[in-house]
Specification:
Strand content: 35-45%
Number of helices: 3
Structural class: alpha+beta
Shape: globular
Low-confidence stretches: none
Distance between the termini: 26 Å
Mean pLDDT: 83
Radius of gyration: 14 Å
Number of strands: 7
Oligomer: single chain
Length: 150
């Protein structure tokens, strides 16, 4: 088990949260937030880690709750602080399955062209996405078992 998957809410003074970066064909998956913070704004799918929940479990749960996608191969690429309240663990997701539709905390879900991201996202989200796009499945150490080819 990777050390960051053992972290739990009680071990960290900031509230842990996760985000999922999915990219394909020159586009990135974004959701429009239903609730604060950033209500009505476009951001990466994700949310708070529940008490006692591992980071990878939270990543998979949040991605499914907001987009109905199942994550398979992912890699942690950045840890940052948001609003001095949340410690955000950013994961690049390389393989997923499912049919996309918005639910739970997202009002919309959409593939946005990378060239148009600055018009849809806040500056910090934009920078986080571009940092994560540098990671590839071969350069990152994958943290999930590979799934069967499509």
């Amino acid at each position: 088990m990777r050390p960051w998957n053992k972290l739990h809410c009680s071990q960290n003074p900031l509230l842990p949260s996760v985000s999922a970066l999915l990219a394909q064909n020159g586009k990135v998956l974004l959701v429009r937030r239903r609730h604060a913070p950033y209500r009505g704004e476009w951001s990466l799918p994700g949310g708070k880690v529940r008490s006692g929940e591992g980071l990878l479990c939270a990543l998979k749960r949040e991605l499914y709750e907001e987009t109905h996608l199942n994550a398979y191969n992912s890699a942690l690429y950045q840890i940052t602080v948001v609003h001095r309240k949340y410690r955000l663990y950013c994961f690049r997701v390389f393989d997923w399955s499912g049919t996309i539709f918005a639910s739970d905390d997202a009002t919309h879900v959409r593939w946005i062209p990378i060239a148009a991201l600055s018009r849809f996202t806040r500056r910090q989200t934009y920078q986080t996405i571009h940092h994560g796009l540098r990671y590839t499945a071969t350069s990152a150490k994958l943290h999930c078992k590979p799934r069967k080819p499509r």
